[in-house]
## 1
Amino acid sequence: MATRIRPASKKCTVIGGSGFLGQHMVERLLDKGYSVNVFDIRQGFENDRVQFFIGDLCSKTDLLPALQGVNVVFHCASPAPSSNNKELFYKVNYTGTRTVIQACKEAGVQKMVLTSSASVVFEGKDIENGSEDLPYAQNPIDYYTETKILQEKEVLGSNDPANNFLTVAIRPHGIFGPRDPQLVPIMVDTAKRGKMKVMIGNGKNLVDFTYVENVVHGHILAAEYLQKDSPLCGKAYHITNDEPIPFWTFISRVLVGLNYEAPKYKIPFWLAYYLALFLSFLVFILSPIVTINPTFTPMRVALAGTYHYYSCERAKKDMGYKPVVSLDKAIEKTVQSYPHLRRGS
Ligand SMILES: NC(=O)C1=CN([C@@H]2O[C@H](COP(=O)(O)OP(=O)(O)OC[C@H]3O[C@@H](n4cnc5c(N)ncnc54)[C@H](O)[C@@H]3O)[C@@H](O)[C@H]2O)C=CC1
Ligand SMILES: CC(C)=CCC[C@@H](C)[C@H]1CC[C@H]2C3=C(CC[C@]12C)[C@@]1(C)CCC(=O)C[C@@H]1CC3
């Protein structure tokens, strides 16, 4: 394992720091004694200990003031994965990330930790205990994944120890926890509309759901172990809870915890997939007249009905990663954090 260096200058910038993961990152970094800048297109919270820089990461002029005197940049900004806006994904995740790299180099930032995604290798087919050596998806399931691949390649390719610029990518999967605007709220909304009665597939497919504090821990370890000649330079690392769970067991535990019924019927994966494809075709045909955001998309069906869990052996070996919150505790903390989503509240 490489040596962990706690940098003398603990000044960092969290790009996307107003988001779900970003806010948890900021809180932990402050606890650990870092001085923290947040760069985001919006200010998501108030905190006197944080310096906010509001701007678009696609603009170097916006970025540069937020990077002065900074040692580490955490880049965890992205448009919401549920969007289908190809142009926006390319602009922010791909060209925007290139701009972030240029700005970091220009400002003399030494380390960049990218929040990538384990989905960069996922094509809608089963992956069991996948390692980081799996090839990138040749047919990514959506524009989000397509541009996360391009983004990760750019960041890892820019690792340049000779010029004192080191990069690493963290690949989490299915992040959940307090204040997540996506996973639990979408699940509850679907249940409220009576559409969470049916399991896709046989209910046995194992998936990684990763508690946000474990994801944060992985990012900070990566920043502290990333140094010249360390194995982390220019590499990607899976960060998971290391406790894969059947997708529908996880969904049921959260729903039951919030007083909703667990799904009890099953439909074959292929049937659900073709129904979702047909639905997205209808949405496309109707798009000039009406905008519809279906819950039931081919991407979600693929995520809900296949095995996709990943090995985090590389992170254990190179940076001593170990989840800090177990899945049981994480589900309990998450359920308790959403009193307003509880049925009957
Ligand atoms: N939520 C999940 O399950 C997973 C998320 N990820 C990655 O984790 C990262 C964080 O995701 P979340 O916190 O869930 O998303 P989020 O949507 O809560 O946060 C993203 C933040 O990026 C900001 N942002 C978007 N475009 C920007 C721009 N042009 N300039 C400046 N800021 C901009 C947004 O305002 C937002 O505050 C993303 O890179 C995502 O791809 C990876 C794996 C799983
Ligand atoms: C079938 C159904 C309606 C399930 C509701 C839960 C889903 C909203 C989530 C289940 C797995 C999640 C997931 C992501 C988003 C939310 C889910 C689809 C990501 C696509 C978020 C961004 C990533 O990088 C990968 C994630 C994989 C898991």
## 2
Amino acid sequence: MGRFKLKCLKCGREYDQEHRLTCENDDSFLRTEYFEKKLELRNQPGIGRFHSWLPVQEELITDAGPITYKSEAFARELGLSNLYIGFSGYWPERSAFIKTCSFKELEAYPTMQLLKETGGKAIVLASAGNTGRAFAHVSALTGIDVYIVVPDSGISSLWLPEEPTESIHLIRMSPGNDYTDAINLAGRIAKLPGMVPEGGARNVARRDGMGTVMLDAAVTIGRIPDHYFQAVGSGTGGISAWEASIRLRDDGRFGQKLAKLQLSQNLPFVPMYNAWQERRRDIIPELDMKNAKKQIEETYATVLTNRAPPYGVTGGLYDALVDTDGIMYAVTKEEALEAKSLFESLEGIDILSPSAVAVASLLKAVEAGKVSRDDTILLNVAGGGYKRLKEDFNLSQVPPVATATDPDMPLEELNI
Ligand SMILES: Cc1ncc(COP(=O)(O)O)c(C=O)c1O
């Protein structure tokens, strides 16, 4: 028996449980409608706890999952009385066991499980680094084949806390190609026989996996937070937090107000920030990301650089910002670095660059009065604990099996 159906957010057409990324009538997002309307926590140590609202049949058995705790030192510094940290990474002292150190692992488990349950054999994805590492790890654990296309700048992020397996096929793109070039090449590889595209934000397993950060927070706090802070590149995390808030609202036990999305990008590459400042649904490349490739090269948090984010599509980030009366911030590298060292010294854990951007945005919000002292705030520290991990594990680099010169090169030459 199925556990959910998929519903098109534009035309309302419904589909049964399957690996489906698009509606046959239009290009809107599909959303999962779960038959369990109330969140019933399962007796699992990690993400499998949230089985009610994950689009898989079998419960996910792993100790990797989101954790939420109430900040003391950092909150005091900011003068906030209800600041909660959603932490995705490795921090065993707080029972955080995501060994690839980012919330992308929360996307990878349900995505790979859904692929397996729907008969898929090999999944193809593009990554700026963290997503690829997460999927490679789950591939090493499950033996399911993954083809990961990564720009040269992301290759050093493709390490694992275990020996790489033959199920991981890493394709490196030579310098000069960025994340969006990787997306374009992955799209072509995914059309080869036997390959399934993972679909990015279009894949409900990815969104609902990431949405568990919001679920964990609501369960820990006892209510939907007033504000949700995260740094975004594709915006998938923001969309996921919004959708999770909607499910929690409909559950009825966690309050009736959606969390206000307060999302950030890293200067100079801030296309969604620019479009949202003018309340535009469309990103206009000439206005919002002029000289995109050059801007991307200058961006500190490289995983936040997606030239084709799911922003204007029905059910995408623009809709999420409208529905939650959201705010976007543009953060400089200097602000991010300052915020990173402040957070790390007060909270006692190292954080990744996109999380530093999110922390900086919270500092800006406090300064600008966009949050009140007693508001309940969820700060999604979506990646961290890399230094902590290295104390406990020997990390192995994943070796590339092929190098691509550009997104349009003949696929036969890749020999994969
Ligand atoms: C740690 C971390 N934070 C934030 C992001 C941005 O995520 P998204 O834009 O998909 O929500 C990423 C993307 O890889 C990430 O790895």
## 3
Amino acid sequence: MKIIKVADSTEMSKTAGEMIAEKVRANPEIVLGLATGGTPVGTYQYLIEDHRKKGTSYSRVSSVNLDEYIGLPKTDPNSYYSFMKTNLFDHLDINPEQTFIPDGSAADLEEECANYERKIAALGGVDLQLLGIGRNGHIAFNEPGTPFESRTHVISLAEDTIKDNARFFSSPEEVPTKAITMGIATILESKEIILLATGKSKAEALYSLVKGEVTEDFPASILQRHGNVTIIADEDALSLI
Ligand SMILES: N[C@@H]1[C@@H](O)[C@H](O)[C@@H](COP(=O)(O)O)O[C@@H]1O
């Protein structure tokens, strides 16, 4: 794993944004795997600014998102569908029909999971996957205990995750308890992965990710077995390494 240590979240966003924009310019038909959460927001702002100033085009880019809450309509501001529109898609020239997010309102969720896998395969797989990390080691919404061979599936969110994500909602009771998430095997098939983290609250998670045992109890540890992972994190997040 390659580790890029930066001073703070501004520098992280610029470093990651530059890397992604460069890859989009080099391969205008790239398939991007995108993440939500607080961490990638600055990177998305960088991509928007770069699109405006340098004209990097997303007109032939496709994207697949990692996950979506179950039980929130798409129009809910906390759905990941709304998050992606507000924080990225509405500000780029990307074709909305080429942006894919699991449908957490699908009548048949199992079918939706299978469809999502088929979509990713039809796109030829993910070229570059952006990831954050949960304090408990989750990647996407793959909570501790999720099998490494899992593919897109429905998951019950861990208590810790509900608590951590409650800051985006008016109360913890409003946080959905279930989600659709790409599986760990799905994520590991991405050709390249960039993982972002900032702040002391992620320091233990980064330690386990880089130095810990590879175990399903800490899903992100499997990234040690992927051949092309770059971690971009600030000094606080890397303070235990
Ligand atoms: N499902 C998302 C993850 O994809 C994200 O990486 C993680 C960290 O979020 P944050 O960046 O807000 O710390 O939690 C969320 O629950």
## 4
Amino acid sequence: MQRRTNNIDYQNFVHQTPKHNEYQVLEEIGRGSFGSVRKVIHIPTKKLMVRKDIKYGHMNSKERQQLIAECAILSQLKQENIVEFYNWDFDEQKEVLYLYMEYCSRGDLSKMIKHYKQDHKYTPEKIVWGILAQILMALYKCHYGEDLPSLVSIYDRMRPPGKGKNIVIHRDLKPGNIFLSSHDGNNESGGKATVDYSEVIVKLGDFGLAKSLETSIQFATTYVGTPYYMSPEVLMDQPYSPLSDIWSLGCVIYEICSLHPPFQAKNYTELQNKIKAGKFDRIPDYYSNGLNAIIHSMIDINLKTRPSTFELLQDIQIRTARKSLQLERFEKNLLDYEKELVNIEKLLEKQAVDYEREVHRLKEHFEIALEQGIRDAMDGKKMSKVPDSIQGYYGKTLSKPAFNWETRYQ
Ligand SMILES: Nc1ncnc2c1ncn2[C@@H]1O[C@H](COP(=O)(O)OP(=O)(O)OP(=O)(O)O)[C@@H](O)[C@H]1O
């Protein structure tokens, strides 16, 4: 395993040297445009992870830099709703870069949408709000480079974020890049075919196209993205900003409700025209006006009126969804704690029973020995068998009981 090559610029990285043989490689779970994704176990911690194998041999220097950028971005972005980047390593001979990341066992939003489509059911509204709130929490970290303050009450006024250093624009928000994980940290789906979507944690991932900008004023002008979710300003080659992620997010949430994207067309030109016009149908009547309104506010062709991540997080329904997620988490922690207490109680009860049984046994033996000793004494024999202590009788390291057996165990 070589660690240096002229083709890759490692200067942006701060990483502890990973050891290739610390990972046990398991099955492949998918393939992307750059290579395969496999499950691996980090042997020292027994942690299940994914390893993204990226062949860089055929890449030009721009693509390699993009790859490095993804790693650099991911290693900085630590937030509960962002797929965690653990480490990286590479094999220079095979020209493969290995990225070790959090494993999300519950699939992604494209699978969830497919599930509801197949079942001919709408995604429950509560689930939609929960997903929207969680993606906004992830985007807050990306767009402002800060941790989102926790919510004490739904009426809390949020302090506006700072100037935004090291902000990140995802640039490729789509259902297939939004992963789902479980609350209990048990990342094995246990062979379960069905996922309880009311209980999943949303994780924003696949930052392959993300662009890290030094400040919020500096914009990227190049775009590579998925047409269905592409914002009109990007289609018109205008500077790319965090608001373009908001447009894409609006399209993703629309699709979760309607089970199809807001703009559909037979060809690219038709799609482009529809996106630029910004006209689309209401989400099904099954959903509230509040949800419809927030989706419409995000899929707004006017950048001046399209809300930012911060503004969306102020929405009372988003705050309610956040609070509800917090309470569910709290309830889950309490239930786990209760289970732990029940187990401890059972253990203590068993120890108490074992202890009493042992004491009872010792007491009986002690009494028999004592009676025998007294009888021997009355018969005029030498009182050699009368124990001074249980230890004396059994040869055990037990001191004479310090309490009165009769009153204690009546
Ligand atoms: N962290 C992860 N946890 C679980 N599954 C993952 C994870 N990352 C990727 N996958 C799965 O691996 C497969 C390949 O993912 P990858 O992101 O490499 O490519 P893609 O998004 O399908 O395509 P593209 O490379 O064009 O973006 C997908 O099925 C994806 O769901």
